[in-house]
């Protein structure tokens, strides 16, 4: 239960729990030191130093949780806690997450691994973790009230199971879900195949991230948890463009991107310049007969998708959600459409009363991207990302796949903007163009408008005769 008293006494409760744990020296010795992350940067892949080898993934603006081996069991320690997450440079949100960040760290294991996860609750209310998509004993499924008692503030629970099938998974609370997911509690889980798998390709680069959404009023820092539809921050791993790192690859790399959707709506994910195959879902690798080329794939709420492609075209290729409102950052929702409205006289009148008054959107919204409008403190610009040719006019769920010939194997650093070779760049036309022929005048007779009324018809509504009331 959330209440202020509980919140204020949270620190004390945790100290209490640790003190209680010292009673049992065995319990203390069994608890792995939690590893915390303080930056929202994309961390390099974590190459396994114990257990079976695999090709590690890279979490966009995130990291993989180190583990310790204990008698053949992989032990992880997740700490559920309030965090400050930088969602974009200059904009920090007060979220809940795991081990210092939201989303929590990615967990990577190998098919057949026995996994033990310690979950310590440093939140002001109870929690639990559900291991979305895993095969496990019912009592490890993490549904508070249904399969386990909730983890009270200050307490640590242990989950243990064998990662039975390889694939793309996630974790999130199954306790006061509406609040805890709206506050950013979630993380990614990869189970790598233990041997060559007929449906799982080896790739050169393997990226993962979660799609999430927040409603944070411009100028404030804490999400409004009651919001069901009108989110104003559409994020990948709790970052919004231009805060989302690019996915940097070497030309002709085989690339896999895995994403899961924990927002309240679907996201058609669109990649420029390449076709991809959907090679897996949270249900596992897809049969080859179900794979066809796509450039956009929709990921519904609670679903995960993995896409694969050969990055054979050099350049900075946009990769984004195709819902245009999801590639924008926070703004009011009450802005009327002003295209074509001439404000001149109205503005004169208003500025007499409000000197700073500003007109928005009479020529479209692109001005907003370029204008250095004063914003409330701690607010991400609506669509501000700068590109080499000006404002990209994007925010939210937008990034780039940067494909470069000279990117080194295993180098994930940002190569900067693409330098377009001669004669491969769209350019301004400076000549004079003849008026293109149109179906008018003499030509119109040959191509008459179809199905148009000969003259304007007035619509007449005929009301039924009276006396039929009550049907
Ligand atoms: Cu979207």
Task: Give a description of the structure.
This protein is mostly beta strands and 471 residues long. The chain contains seven helices and 23 strands. The chain is globular, with a radius of gyration of 27 Å. Bound molecules: copper (II) ion (CU). Copper (II) ion is lined by residues 234, 267, 321, 323, 326, 397. Copper (II) ion binds at residues 234, 267, 321, 323, 326, 397.
Question: Any idea what the radius of gyration is?
Answer: 27 Å
- Rough shape? globular
Looking at the chains present, what oligomeric state does this protein adopt? single chain
The span between the termini is: 51 Å
Brief digest:
The protein is mainly beta and 471 residues long. It contains seven helices and 23 strands.
Q: What's the helix and strand layout?
A:
Blueprint: H1 4-8, H2 10-23, H3 25-30, E1 58-59, E2 68-70, E3 73-88, E4 91-98, E5 107-110, E6 114-121, E7 130-132, E8 156-162, E9 167-172, H4 177-182, E10 187-192, E11 205-214, E12 233-236, E13 247-250, E14 253-261, E15 267-271, E16 277-281, E17 284-285, E18 296-299, E19 304-311, E20 315-321, H5 344-353, H6 366-370, E21 386-387, E22 390-391, E23 398-404, H7 441-446
This protein binds copper (II) ion (CU).
The site of copper (II) ion has 6 residues, from loops.
């Amino acid at each position: 239960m959330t209440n202020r008293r509980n919140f204020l006494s949270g620190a004390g409760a945790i100290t209490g729990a640790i003190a209680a744990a010292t009673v049992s020296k065995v319990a203390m010795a069994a608890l792995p030191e939690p590893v915390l992350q303080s930056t929202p940067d994309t961390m390099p892949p974590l190459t396994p130093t114990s257990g079976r080898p695999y090709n590690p993934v890279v979490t966009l603006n995130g990291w993989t949780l180190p583990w310790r081996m204990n008698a053949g069991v992989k032990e992880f320690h997740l700490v559920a806690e309030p965090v400050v997450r930088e969602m974009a440079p200059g904009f920090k949100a007060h979220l809940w997450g795991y081990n210092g960040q939201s989303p929590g760290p990615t967990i990577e294991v190998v098919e057949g691994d026995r996994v033990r996860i310690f979950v310590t609750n440093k939140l002001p209310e109870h929690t639990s973790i559900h291991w979305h998509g895993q095969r496990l004993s019912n009592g490890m499924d993490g549904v508070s009230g249904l399969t386990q008692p909730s983890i009270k503030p200050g307490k640590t629970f242990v989950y243990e199971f064998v990662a039975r099938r390889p694939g793309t998974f996630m974790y999130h609370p199954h306790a006061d879900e509406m609040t805890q997911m709206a506050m950013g509690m979630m993380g990614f889980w990869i189970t790598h195949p233990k041997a060559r798998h007929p449906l799982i390709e080896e790739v050169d680069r393997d990226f993962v991230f979660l799609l999430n959404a927040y409603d944070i009023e411009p100028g404030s820092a804490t999400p409004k948890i009651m919001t069901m539809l009108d989110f104003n921050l559409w994020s990948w791993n709790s970052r919004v463009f231009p805060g989302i790192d690019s996915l940097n690859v070497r030309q002709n790399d085989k690339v896999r991107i895995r994403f899961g959707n924990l927002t309240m709506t679907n996201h058609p994910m669109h990649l420029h310049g390449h076709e991809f195959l959907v090679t897996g879902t949270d249900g596992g690798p897809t049969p080859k007969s179900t794979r066809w080329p796509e450039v956009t794939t929709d990921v519904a709420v609670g679903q995960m998708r993995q896409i694969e492609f050969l990055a054979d075209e050099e350049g900075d290729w946009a990769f984004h959600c195709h819902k245009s409102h999801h590639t924008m950052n926070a703004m009011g929702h009450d802005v009327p459409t002003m295209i074509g409205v001439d404000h001149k006289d109205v503005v004169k009148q208003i500025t007499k009363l409000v000197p700073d008054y500003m007109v928005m959107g009479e020529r479209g919204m692109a001005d907003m991207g370029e204008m250095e409008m004063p914003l409330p403190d701690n607010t991400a610009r609506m669509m501000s990302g700068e590109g080499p040719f000006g404002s990209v006019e994007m925010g939210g769920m937008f990034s780039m796949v940067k494909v470069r010939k000279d990117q080194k194997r295993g180098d994930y650093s940002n190569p900067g903007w693409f330098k377009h070779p001669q004669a491969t760049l769209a350019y301004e036309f400076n000549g004079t163009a003849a008026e293109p022929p149109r179906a008018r005048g003499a030509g119109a007779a040959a191509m008459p408008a179809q199905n148009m009324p000969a003259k304007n018809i007035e619509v007449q509504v005929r009301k039924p005769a009276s006396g039929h009331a009550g049907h």
